[in-house]
Design goal:
This protein is α+β, with helices and mostly antiparallel strands. The protein has a single domain (28-119), classed as Outer Surface Protein A, domain 3. The protein has three helices and six strands. The chain has helices at residues 67-75, 82-92, 100-113, and strands at 31-34, 38-43, 46-51, 63-65, 80-81, 117-119. A three-stranded antiparallel sheet has the order 5-1-6. Helix 2 (82-92) packs across helix 3. The longest helix is centred in the C-terminal third of the chain and has 14 residues, at 100-113. The chain is globular.
Length: 121
Amino acid sequence: MEENRQSDVAPSVSESPETSSGDKPEESVRKLKANPDFLLREVAGEAVLIPVGEAGVFENSVISLNDTCCFLWKLFQTPRTIEDVIAEAKKEYSDPDGAMEQGIYSFISDYLKYGLLVEEE
C-alpha cells in the first residue's frame, strides 16, 4: 500500500492480544460491511468518519482516516469478503515487501473490534 507501513492501514488504536501479528480474523469467507452508524465526510481536506447513530465509544468524536483506510472504508460500503478486499487493494497499490495483506487483516481486526465494521446479516 502507499508505503506499506502498518500505520497506513490500521487505525491509531492499541493492539490487543486478539489482533497480534500473525492472527487473522477467522471465517474469512464471511462478508463484512461498514457500520452505517458512521458516515465518511471530508472536513478541511481530511477524510473523517462521523458517528451518527449508536457509535459506542466513539460518540461525540470524529475518526480521522488516512488515504489507505479511506480506500478500504469505501470498499466496505458494500458487503465484501476479506479476500475480495485484498484483491481490490492489490489492484490499487503495489506491495513489493508483501506487507499489505497483514495490514488489511489488522485494519479489519481493529475496525471489527471497535464496531466500525460489522458482519453482514
